[in-house]
Amino acid sequence: METTAVRRRLTWQAAAVTSIARETASVVTIELEPPDWPGHLAGQHLDVRLTAGPIGGYFVWEPTDDSPLMLIAGGSGVVPLRSMLRHRLRAGSDVPARLLYSSRTLPDVIYRGELDQYGDGVRVICTLTRSQPPGWTGYSGRVNTAMLAETVWPASQHPLAFVCGPTTFVEAVAENLIGLGYPSERIKTERFGGT
To answer: What is the side-by-side order of every strand in the sheet holding 139-140?
Structure first.
């Protein structure tokens, strides 16, 4: 399904930086205000050449898909998935959603305050791969088949999965989801880093 935001001719735009928020010790969110912004689809990314517009139409979620939403992030891969959760909230969608988020340490969890605020219909599950604080009750270690089997929607519920993170993370998660019965056409991936 194409939308106006995807079909428009992509052109570079100059934008003003309206805010900068420190999310973790190594991540900041920069909000931009371009003069002629058609909007973007939840999950799209931007190419930045000092300024840029949204590209891509594959890794997007629309609230008209009423299947359970399975979001799986590695590190900064949470950024487009957070966009989907925000879009779900703004659209008033009651589609059940789960976010499995892998991060090195608790201070490295991007948008931690916001993710803790999602309530009805959204379950946020964190796994910390490097160290866990005293009293940690979440998962520890890298995302693997056993962790996925315990946390993802069963394939019988026909969920739509979005996986974003480093290339090796995305490939391993997608392969494991297929092993759990997810059809490949119901798994959308976005990766970064070496191939």
So the answer is: 139-140, 122-128, 97-103, 69-74, 160-166, 187-192
Q: What residues does each domain of the chain span?
A: 4-55, 69-192
**Structural contact between residues 100 and 127, judged by C-beta atoms closer than 8 angstroms:** yes
Beta strands in the chain (DSSP E): 16-24, 27-33, 45-46, 54-55, 69-74, 97-103, 122-128, 139-140, 160-166, 187-192
- Assess contact for 44 and 8: CB atoms under 8 A: no
pLDDT tens-digit readout, 41-68: 888 877 776 544 766 678 899 999 999 9
Each residue of 128-157: pLDDT tens digit? 999 999 999 999 999 999 999 999 999 999
Task: Count CB neighbours of 20 within 10 A.
Answer: 9
C-alpha span between 192 and 74 (Å, rounded): 10
Alpha helices in the chain (DSSP H): 4-7, 78-90, 112-115, 145-151, 167-179
Say if CB 159 and CB 185 are below 8 A apart: no
Closest alpha carbon to 125 in 155, 135, 109? 109
| CATH architecture group of domain 69-192 | 3-Layer(aba) Sandwich (3.40)
